[in-house]
Amino acid sequence: MRLPDWIQWPAMAVTVLAAWYVASTQSQRRRRGFWLYLLGNLLWIVWGLQARAYALITLQVCLAALNIRGERKASHIRSDARNPTPRASLKAD
Q1: What domain range includes position 44?
Q2: What are 32-42's pLDDT values in tens digits?
Q3: Which helix (H) or strand (E) is 4 found in, with range?
Q4: Is residue 28 part of a domain?
Q5: Residue 2 lies inside a defined structural domain of this protein
Q6: By the 8 A CB rule, do 47 and 7 touch?
Q7: pTM, to two decimals
Q8: What's the CA dihedral at 34, 36, 41, 45 to 10 degrees?
Q9: pLDDT by residue (tens digit) across 42-92?
Q10: How many structural domains is the chain composed of?
Q11: CB-based contacts of 40: which residues, under 8 Å, 6+ apart?
């Protein structure tokens, strides 16, 4: 096996570990899972480049984009929960 072929094993292990952390009830572990997922995406892309697995590379880019989108939405929700804004009261005319 060539050296880049070995990258698939750490990529798989990091991805499984990321899934474990993301499923946690603790926000710090979920955040760690987010970063591990991105690392896994990067490792799969490296492996996909040497294997010429362009569909896999495209998949990893899309999954990374979805993870980033989800993290942004979650951080926005967290910041809204910490800084609630008063809602305008609805008045019937």
Answers
A1: 8-81
A2: 999 999 999 99
A3: none
A4: yes
A5: no
A6: yes
A7: 0.81
A8: 150
A9: 999 999 999 999 999 999 999 999 999 999 998 888 777 777 766 555 555
A10: 1
A11: 11, 14, 15, 18
